[in-house]
Amino acid sequence: MIIHNNEVRDILNQVADLMEIKEENSFRVRAYREAARIVEAMPEQVSKMVEAGEDLTRYRGIGKDLAGKIREIAETGTLAQLKELGKEVPVSLLELMKLPSLGPRKISQIYKTLGVKTLEELESAAKQDKIAGLSGFGEKTQQKILDSLERFKKSGEKRLLWSDAEPFARSLQKYLKEVGGAKKIVVVGSFRRGKETVGDLDILATCSQGSEQDLMAAFVRFEGVKNVLAHGKTKSSVILRSGLQVDLRIVAQVSHGSALHYFTGSKAHNIAVRRLGLERGYRINEYGVYEGEKRIAGKTEKEVYTSVGLSFIEPELRENLGEIEAAEDGRLPVLVKKSDIRGDLHAHTRRTDGHGSLREMAEAAKAKGYEYLAITEHSQKVAMAGGLNEKAVRAHMEDIDRINEALKGIRLLKGMEVDILADGTLDLPDSVLRELDLAVCSVHYQQRLDRKKQTERIIRAMDNPNMDILGHPTSRLINTREPMDIDLEKIIEAAKERSVVIELNAQPDRLDLPHNYCKIAAELGVKIALSTDAHGTDGLGFMDNGIIAARRGWLTRADIINTRSLSRLRRLLRRNG
């Protein structure tokens, strides 16, 4: 049985959620969440490790008991403990966890006081003004719940993060390529365009003549399939155990390019291309480019674009946000690629809330071929993460000096992730900040200030010449927390005036700066730091997510500062030096 790491992670988190709703021991809850985080970050499939008999307790944070739980999930796809918890606490309460305005403790209180078990019951209670009267809630919290419910209903079921959909996409792609007769297997749609979230997966295939039936039969037999919705000769649809719907279409090889273009989308982009075709007397659809009844193009995507006078447009740009005009004028950017990245400028170690040592992080960065890695521990305000005060920061810098003396081929940069306080001052004195190689400055607290105050807070922080990079600018957590209410264009303009770099945080649930604002920043000449915010060695791999987000934001190698050599990077960073 193929059980992906994110499936194991989800079950462990569900156990933690139900335990927290039950108000069980907080240390046990934290242990399950930590195990979920470790499994998610593992570079290989935990199910394969279990099958090979590997000892999971070698991972710091996974003891014998949790190793057994993970093994049970990997072998069976479920966990008996979760079923037992479901007898004590309604599993439907996990639906309430989809609302960013609610956490386990508040859900527990609502359930125990009002008997609310479902989203529908929650909405009814809020509309009847029953929630505002609960201790610790009030009118504002009740309204936030109603607003969250409204957003949830508009968006439908929570979409999967791109990074969560990716293991399913890749395993299906690999599986289908191994089927006899399969030729080209491409995952299209919003996944191919690299959107932050994915509602379903669409797979496009070509195969040798006569093997269509075998390919479709293999698809519906895929081990992760829970339900078969349709099973046809050229199209089939299934639901995976995760709830993700996957559609497979088989197209003729002569139409592969047209179909690839059509099913990749976006709809707005395709309409714009078809309009150009009509102006030239062509009809463009998923089968080809036609002049009258004659197919004149469509075997490749490049042919489709060439037929309407356009250069090839990368999938990540296909949102009808200026890419058509840029292609007509020869202004399409040469998008950044993974090999352009020379280092990572935001990472944590176990000195604060990370999970690797300085040496481990340095060696992992070196193994990726990086020239440098900035270690940016939290500052003192983030007490729950063990944030560092002035004395601890100096010790942190001394530790980095020792590692740099011992290691060759990689340079650790002395950095800090410094909190931007509510009044716009920074969480460490200038005398300390001046000694750092770089300061990533971020908002972690009081994220619900009004738009004017929040914007002024961030710009005031930029006035400090020791601030190098604005970290995760909107503080959003995709599917979990709404972005801060800020005037982001005004902040980007302020960054331009003050030569402040803006981070594109590559954490899968952040991808922050959002891609549309990356484009605005680049157009204004504001530089971007593409960083992982890694909290362990495996977290450095989030750079892949960041590259996709950067490409969606039209970013080139020149727009991103960590494509530079260390010497050039140093010249770019310090405004006060």
Relative helix content: 40-55%
**Total E-strand runs:** 17
> What would you say the CATH architecture of the largest domain is?
Alpha-Beta Barrel
Number of structurally distinct domains: 4
Please tally the helical runs, counting DSSP H or I stretches of 4 or more residues: 24
Highest CATH level, the class of the largest domain: Alpha Beta
Lay out the secondary structure.
Elements: H1 5-21, H2 26-41, H3 46-51, H4 64-76, H5 80-88, H6 93-96, H7 104-114, H8 119-127, H9 138-155, E1 160-161, H10 162-177, E2 182-187, H11 189-192, E3 197-198, E4 201-207, H12 212-220, E5 225-231, E6 235-240, E7 245-250, H13 256-264, H14 267-279, E8 283-285, E9 288-291, E10 294-297, H15 301-307, H16 323-329, E11 343-344, H17 358-367, E12 372-378, H18 390-406, E13 411-419, H19 430-433, E14 438-442, H20 451-462, E15 469-470, H21 488-498, E16 501-505, H22 515-524, E17 528-531, H23 543-552, H24 566-573
Parallel strand pairs: 4-7, 11-12, 12-13, 13-14, 14-15, 15-16, 16-17
Antiparallel strand pairs: 1-3, 2-4, 5-6, 6-7, 8-9, 9-10
Helix pairs in contact: 1-2, 1-5, 1-7, 8-9, 13-15, 20-21, 21-22, 22-23
How would you describe what is shown here?
With 577 residues, the chain is of the alpha/beta class. The chain has 24 helices and 17 strands. The protein has a seven-stranded parallel beta sheet with strand order 11-12-13-14-15-16-17. Helix 1 runs parallel beside helix 5. The longest helix is centred in the N-terminal third of the chain and has 18 residues, at 138-155. It starts with a helix and ends with a helix. The model has no long low-confidence stretch (mean pLDDT 93).
